[in-house]
Design goal:
four-stranded antiparallel β-sheet; single chain; mainly beta
Length: about 375
């Protein structure tokens, strides 16, 4: 657990071998006194500690580390996972070196210079970074040339999120969602046309989306003041494949598992953290009883952001950053037993399990063990 000195919002996990646990967390303060902290796990003390930080006037709407450590054509500063991107008033790149987070570049904004609502860094083509903006546009940057490669009007209203293709076969594709209540699919090879994957009948704004990392056909999203997550099959536009309900609280963040095509994570406004096991995405309608289909963990504070890396989940809340250990490859019931056994060994008696580690639903189990 890392206690932040301000309400935390943006959260990013560095995809690195060493150190195995490095995160960036951004503040959300109404005053022009915001910050980004880089935290790492101290192996000796077992605590998350701040190793670097930088001040910013406006809160970052999203943070992202360079997707991999592999070399790229972006110059020496990008040859490892120490490069961090932040968006908000614009897009700025930082380099973590010698205990300092140093600004290395600010990407040139479009002529209208709109606020940036979100961004995504292609894990396949690492010289590409795409941004979404309140002026209905999407910009795709060439990080090697440090300039806008493509700018297009993507929605009828503000664009709130964007996700680029996660696999080589769909590297040219990207999805977006926005205030007009639609999810749209684009292909960089032909930007004159797009496919409307989903369109809310009541035009409820869609705030965030997440593309399944292992199955290119599925995208999850949630709307404003929504207590459920929708799952879309890109092969069946306009038809909601699944709707996954929470226990009544509004959804704030979602993420697919990195090593399982059938597990989806969500963080809610009441501190709930849910994992659904969507085992048959193309089969019969999903049962909606939370006790049978969801695992839950109570973070005790509103969850603003979630990150899922192999073996671990990170939660950004209004008071702290919390890292949980989990094995997403285990079936739900086995996962529950494994967590109970962990605490039984740690406390000596399973009856002494912390009360907040239990699901609020009738059949749900403990989610995982906090570090």
């Amino acid at each position: 657990v890392y206690h932040t000195p301000w309400p935390a919002y943006a959260l990013a996990w560095a995809n690195r071998v060493e150190p195995r646990m490095r995160l960036a967390v951004g503040s959300f303060c109404e005053s022009e006194q915001n910050a980004i902290h880089v935290i790492e796990l101290n192996e000796e003390s077992g605590r998350l500690e701040k190793v670097a930080g930088v001040k910013q006037a406006l809160p970052p709407t999203k943070l992202m580390w360079k997707p991999t450590d592999r070399p790229s054509a972006m110059g020496e500063t990008a040859r490892d996972g120490n490069l961090l991107a932040s968006c908000g008033a614009g897009v700025e790149l930082f380099q973590l070196a010698d205990g300092q987070l140093q600004s290395t570049a600010k990407l040139p904004p479009p002529k209208t210079n709109p606020p940036v609502t979100s961004m995504d860094w292609s894990p396949i083509k690492e010289t590409k970074l795409a941004t979404s903006s309140v002026d209905t546009t999407i910009c795709i940057y060439d990080l090697h040339k440090m300039k806008i490669e493509t700018q297009l009007i993507a929605h009828d209203k503000a664009v709130f999120d964007i996700a680029m293709g996660q696999r080589e076969s769909i590297a040219s594709l990207f999805c977006s969602c926005g205030q007009d209540g639609s999810i749209r699919l684009f292909d960089e090879r032909n930007l004159e046309h797009s496919t409307i994957i989903f369109d809310n009948e009541n035009s409820t704004p869609l705030l965030r989306l997440s593309w399944n990392k292992l199955d290119k056909n599925y995208v999850a999203a949630f709307g404003s003041d929504s207590n459920s997550v929708i799952v879309m099959d890109l092969r069946k536009p306009s038809v909601c494949c699944k709707e996954l309900p929470t226990h009544g609280a509004f959804v704030n963040a979602i993420a697919w598992a990195p090593q399982s095509r059938s597990h989806l994570l969500a963080g809610t406004e009441d501190g709930g953290t849910l994992i659904w096991r969507v085992s048959e995405l193309t089969g019969a309608p999903l049962e909606t009883q939370m006790g049978q289909q969801a695992l839950q963990y109570d973070a005790q504070h509103e969850v603003q952001s979630v990150q899922w890396m192999p073996g671990f989940i990170a939660l950004g809340t209004t008071r702290r950053v919390e890292v949980l250990h989990i094995d997403a490859g285990l079936p739900v019931r086995i996962l529950r037993r494994a967590c109970l056994h962990f605490w039984a060994r740690r406390l000596g008696d399973p009856r002494r399990l912390p009360a907040r580690m239990y699901s609020a639903g009738g059949g749900g189990g403990a989610l995982c063990a906090p570090l």
